[in-house]
UniProtKB/TrEMBL annotation:
The keyword Acyltransferase applies. CDD domains: NAT_SF (cd04301). Keywords: Acyltransferase, Transferase. Pfam families: Acetyltransf_1. InterPro entries: Acyl_CoA_acyltransferase (IPR016181), GNAT_dom (IPR000182), YpeA/RimI_acetyltransf (IPR050680). The lineage of its organism: Bacteria, Pseudomonadati, Pseudomonadota, Gammaproteobacteria, Vibrionales. Signal peptide: none annotated. It comes from Vibrio hangzhouensis. It comes from the Bacteria. Residues 1-173 form the N-acetyltransferase domain. The keyword Transcription regulation does not apply. GO terms for molecular function: acyltransferase activity, transferring groups other than amino-acyl groups. This is Acetyltransferase (GNAT) family protein.
Length: 179
């Protein structure tokens, strides 16, 4: 398996994986019409925009094997004054789950955050009903810091948790214990 920084030419594959992941994980949480009809278009636009001219604080790493996208992670350094660097996306193909890819992507992200934003915390937001993701983030030392309610892209209001790590070094420490 190889890890590399995403390029503009990756946007469609990243968007498709992102949409597929949402279609699977958010059944019954988001509006089905959005998952069936709108999510791929939304994700395609997001990733085309993000990868065309990325801001300096954005970092996207993809995991691939024999040219096939297996997963990706996207983070934005120093995104929030209280919590620091946000892990905005982490998705792994269903068929590739259970191989440690998510932990390796988190480690890649943590190394970047440690290099460029070592004095900031790291955080992410996860839907409160996404139990498998919550279990994973807790297994790598995530601390549930906040519960909030927000409007999802489909227009439905959903509860989410904010999980935090005190620093990129703390996140890396937990990942290295598990990889």
């Amino acid at each position: 398996m190889e890890f590399r920084v995403a390029e503009y030419s990756d946007y469609q594959n990243v968007a498709e994986l992102h949409a597929e992941s949402w279609q699977k994980a958010y059944q019954g949480i988001m509006r089905q019409s959005y998952l069936d009809e709108g999510v791929l278009e939304d994700k395609s636009l997001i990733w085309q925009t993000r990868l065309l001219n990325p801001p300096f604080s954005q970092h996207v790493v993809i995991a691939e094997e024999k040219g096939e996208l297996l997963g990706f992670i996207c983070l934005f350094g120093n995104h929030n004054a209280d919590y620091g660097t946000i892990i905005d996306n982490l998705h792994v193909k269903s068929a590739a789950q259970g191989r440690g890819i998510a932990k390796q992507l988190i480690a890649q992200a943590g190394q970047w955050a440690e290099k460029y934003y070592p004095d900031n915390g790291v955080f992410l937001e996860v839907l409160a009903e996404n139990n498998s993701a919550i279990k994973f983030y807790e297994s790598i030392g995530g601390h549930k810091a906040l519960k909030q309610r927000g409007e999802s892209p489909c227009g439905k209001y959903v509860d989410e948790f904010v999980y935090t790590w005190a620093s990129p070094a703390k996140l890396l420490e937990r990942c290295s214990e598990l990889v």
